[in-house]
Write a structure and sequence with these properties.
mainly alpha; about 375 residues; elongated; two-stranded antiparallel sheet
């Protein structure tokens, strides 16, 4: 077993769990995972309902309690909406997972090609693990700080029906509220981890293809079927980009919409209580919700554009007539532009991320001016 396949085997069960949370796949897998997914959705759904009921009963004053309740409602609603979209696109996500697994199972007869494959796959898994660590740290820190701030200011945003909020039950409600917030945050982070895993590996596949193309001059005489290998990998990469686009069709739109709302609420919150650390941590969470997707879209567009440039730099004119015809097929495919779109309407790239932040800041300024 290759080193990269060993790495994948170690992470496979965890990745499957994250994908199961995103797609609400509860018909297969370990029983404890299926139960945790079902209980997580039930807990977050009930939590959302309780916070909405609390908002209806509140005075409507824009204070810490009201802002935290709005942020929690937006965050948990986003989780539930992504679950619904994930169920609808479950087949596409699991197909992508299979394609990524096949990528790890690939074996090359040439040592240099094996090195290229291993290098990028190991690097992509390392990037995923680093992202997982920081997603967990930032999400948990924001949830913990928000819970602590609510406790210090004697605020309760999750009220249980038929239980009084007087002093005898208040401590229990604080503990219950903190547990639900942390649980919700953890499940949200797992959804984002699943998206990070898929996105990073699609980009890794493009990097591998790009490196293979760079070796065309050198390998075409050594490996007679090398052009066929490049065509095969190019077709797979394009199909996987299309599959990723299809998978993220609704989820990207949901993520964009809710992230804009979360950033807007958080900016309003920061204007009122700029000294609170929780504000900045939650703002960072809002950024983390949308920035990775935009970065993936930018990288995919950039790398697919570079493929044709890389091919032009090869000594294609030295190829045989048969190989030149094959080369033209690859070149035609490489000329097409590929990228991600949210709901087929908006390009998913860094420019879209900047626009989301600008929209949130603009609406925040308008609402702040009107409230004066």
């Amino acid at each position: 077993m290759s080193e990269q396949l060993t790495m994948f085997a170690k992470e496979k069960s965890l990745v499957e769990y994250h994908l199961s949370i995103l797609t609400f796949s509860v018909t297969s897998g370990p029983l404890k995972n299926r139960l945790s997914i079902i209980l997580g959705v039930i807990a977050i759904a009930l939590c959302t309902v309780m916070i909405i009921c609390h908002l209806k009963r509140s005075s409507g004053d824009v204070d810490l309690n009201y802002m935290m309740a709005l942020l929690a409602t937006a965050g948990f609603s986003e989780y539930l909406m992504k679950c619904v979209c994930g169920i609808y696109k479950s087949k596409e996500f699991w197909k992508l997972f299979e394609e990524i697994e096949h990528l790890y199972q690939d074996e090359e007869s040439d040592e240099e090609l094996t090195t290229v494959l291993a290098k990028h796959l190991k690097k992509s898994m390392e990037i995923c693990n680093i992202c997982y660590i920081w997603i967990d740290r930032i999400y948990i820190a924001s949830g913990a700080m928000a819970s602590i701030q609510l406790r210090l200011d004697d605020n309760i945003i999750i009220e249980l029906p038929f239980i009084s909020t007087d002093d005898s039950f208040k401590d229990f409600l604080y503990v219950f509220q903190t547990c639900l917030i942390i649980v919700g945050i953890l499940y949200m982070s797992k959804q984002d981890k699943a998206l990070v895993f898929v996105g990073v590996h699609i980009i890794a596949e493009l990097y591998i293809l790009h490196n293979y193309m760079k070796l065309l001059n050198e390998k075409i005489n050594i490996l007679p079927n090398f052009l066929k290998t490049i065509i095969s990998k190019h077709c797979n990469a394009i199909e996987n980009i299309k599959l990723l686009n299809k998978s993220l069709y609704e989820i990207a739109f949901v993520q964009f919409s809710f992230s804009t709302v979360i950033l807007l609420i958080n900016l309003m919150f920061m204007r009122n209580v700029a000294s609170e650390i929780a504000c900045y941590l939650i703002f960072t969470c809002g950024i983390l919700q949308v920035f990775p997707l935009c970065l993936f879209g930018e990288f995919i567009k950039m790398k697919t554009e570079k493929l044709s440039e890389t091919l032009y730099l090869t000594n294609w004119y030295d190829l045989s007539l048969k190989d030149q015809k094959t080369f033209l097929i690859i070149l035609t495919m490489a000329h097409r532009e590929y990228g991600l779109k949210a709901a087929g309407l908006y390009d998913v790239n860094v420019y879209a991320f900047v626009q989301i932040v600008k929209i949130a800041m603009s609406y925040c300024a308008i609402l702040y001016t009107l409230s004066k």
